[in-house]
Design goal:
The complex is a heterodimer of chains A (92) and B (383).
Chain A: E1 7-9, E2 14-15, H1 16-24, H2 30-37, H3 49-61, E3 80-81, H4 82-86
Antiparallel strand pairs in A: 1-2
Chain B: E1 9-12, H1 16-27, E2 33-36, E3 52-53, H2 60-79, E4 93-97, H3 100-115, E5 121-123, H4 125-131, E6 142-146, E7 150-151, H5 154-167, E8 171-173, E9 178-184, E10 187-193, E11 196-199, E12 203-205, H6 211-217, E13 225-236, E14 244-247, E15 252-256, E16 261-266, H7 281-294, E17 302-313, E18 320-323, E19 330-334, H8 340-356, H9 369-373
Parallel strand pairs in B: 1-2, 1-12, 2-8, 4-14, 12-19
Antiparallel strand pairs in B: 3-7, 4-6, 5-6, 9-10, 10-11, 13-16, 13-17, 14-15, 15-16, 18-19
Helix pairs in contact in B: 1-5, 1-8, 2-8
Classes of the chains: A mainly alpha (92), B alpha/beta (383).
Chain lengths: 92, 383
């Protein structure tokens, strides 16, 4: 696999090689990894990368995916424009 | 991982304050320093904070700590030989006044700030709009601006202190919880963790939102309380706003971070004392209403995430940085009242000097005895 050109997190433009380097530094939970390299912190809210990072960590730890703890799921479920929250949604 | 069975100093809390103390102790040559963190480093208030660094305070102590901490942030990349740049951005803090009374308080604060060589100044509403062109000036009577205030990345500052401390020999144990502090009379003899006992006569309480609980382990009822403060972040956009915009009347702060998202928080005056970390719908509504009234173009931005952290608050909104009189060897760096991250660098220096018996680089007047004596100087500038 071309690790330098395999994108794991599209929002933050993170490659497999970059993510593996962060893991090699000792950041072995998703909570820590996201804080260091912003994985999963973009507008898609981790919809792709969280499905990949647990596989990468499970492979490294030689365990099942279900053993990898997902980060805290924070609201809102998807991006909401502020004007929709303030009742100004009709404004251009 | 089993812990060492003895240490010169045990630091409880792996947030930025505990790590700054650890680094500075090791730098001063103190051996066998152990730091305990029950989850991962920065998992408490540090990585939940608003990432702002401000020197525009109202009390002498807060001004002194913030000013000297800024010096340290400015040279931190080199000082700590970081792997990742800490993302310091100095585009200022613009504080807005909505009444003459508020403006009078700003003027008083500016006088204190100038004593500490903080380059802040008064601004007119027109000057405020020159600094932040999309600002809605309605109701604004004036403001204050400090061009060297700004932003740093809390995750990366935490990492920088941790790595530097490890290089100097500090043992950092994550996922290791301090369960109790063992004592003989009023003297500390050890810290019991879920990974074993560490014998020591010196403990640093750097437990942030949970500092009250650590105090109870040595029989102290510390004059601090914790409350939830909420925050949200938007999608990334092109650079639009350099400075942090802050209002104590609106009780909000809002800044665009160097990566592009806007980060903003609102302090709910009715928030009860608790350890609650849940996000609320009420906050989302209040925050967006206030922020978009003050900064109308933000209406177009998407909120992508909200979260909460704990403020550990003292009666005068200034921290407690001291050794306990009742329990010698029990050191405290607690009660930061929402501004611990920005003054952590100097806190680390001063507490390490205190523990190591060195001459302090700044005369501290932040002992808990001040509350009993009643000589409170209330910090007026907290959101």
């Amino acid at each position: 696999m071309d690790r330098q050109n395999t994108i794991i997190c599209r929002c933050e433009d993170l490659t497999l090689a970059e993510v593996e380097e962060v893991i090699a530094e000792g950041y072995t939970t998703i909570e820590e990894i996201k804080r260091i390299c912003r994985l999963g912190m973009g507008p898609c809210r981790g919809s792709t990368c969280l499905q990949l990072i647990d596989r990468i960590l499970a492979r490294q730890k030689n365990c099942g995916r279900e053993e990898i703890k997902m980060p805290t799921n924070r609201p809102p479920l998807e991006g909401i424009k502020m004007k929709e929250l303030t009742g100004d949604a009709g404004e251009k | 991982m089993p812990v060492k069975n003895k240490a010169n100093v045990v630091i409880i809390g792996g947030g930025v304050v505990g790590l700054a103390v650890a680094y500075n102790l090791a730098r001063l040559g103190v051996k066998d320093v152990v730091l305990l963190e029950r989850a991962y480093l920065g998992s408490g208030a540090t990585s939940r904070c608003g990432a702002g660094i401000r020197q525009q305070w109202g009390t002498e102590m807060n001004c002194a700590l913030a000013r000297k901490s800024m010096d340290i942030f400015e040279k931190m990349n080199e000082m700590l030989e970081v792997k990742r740049d800490i993302e310091l951005k100095q585009k200022g803090y613009l504080l807005l006044a909505f009444s003459e009374k508020e403006m009078e308080q700003f003027r008083k604060n500016l006088k204190v700030q100038s004593k500490y060589d903080i380059p802040s100044r008064e601004v007119t509403p027109r000057e405020a709009r020159d600094i932040v062109p999309h600002l809605n000036l309605e109701g604004i009577v004036g403001g204050a601006f400090c061009p060297t205030d700004g932003h740093v990345n809390p995750f990366l500052v935490t990492e920088a202190y941790a790595n530097a401390a490890r290089r100097l020999g500090v043992d950092i144990y994550t996922y290791t919880e301090a369960l109790d502090i063992e004592m003989s009379g009023s003297k500390i003899t050890g810290v019991r963790t879920d990974q074993g006992l560490i014998k020591t006569d010196s403990v640093v309480n750097a437990a942030g939102g949970y500092s009250q609980q650590i105090g109870k382990m040595v029989g102290l009822d510390l004059p601090v309380k914790s409350e939830r403060h909420e925050i949200l972040v938007t999608e990334k956009v092109e650079p639009l706003q350099g400075p942090m915009v802050m209002s104590f009347s609106y009780n909000i702060y809002c800044q665009q971070t160097p990566e592009g998202p806007f980060l903003m928080g609102y302090g709910d005056p009715d928030e009860p004392e608790s350890y609650n970390l849940n996000s609320s719908w009420h906050f989302l509504e209040e925050m967006t209403r206030k922020a978009t009234r003050l900064l109308p173009p933000l209406k177009q931005l998407r909120v992508i995430r909200q979260w909460a952290g704990l403020y550990n608050i003292t009666p005068d909104r200034q921290p407690i940085i001291a050794e306990s009189e009742e329990v010698p060897g029990f050191f405290m760096a607690i009660g930061f009242s929402g501004h611990g991250f920005m003054i952590a660098p100097m806190t680390g220096v001063l507490l390490a000097e205190m523990i190591g018996g060195e001459e302090p680089s700044l005369e501290l007047k932040l002992d808990p005895g001040r509350f009993a004596r009643g000589d409170l100087i209330l910090e007026p500038s907290v959101v």
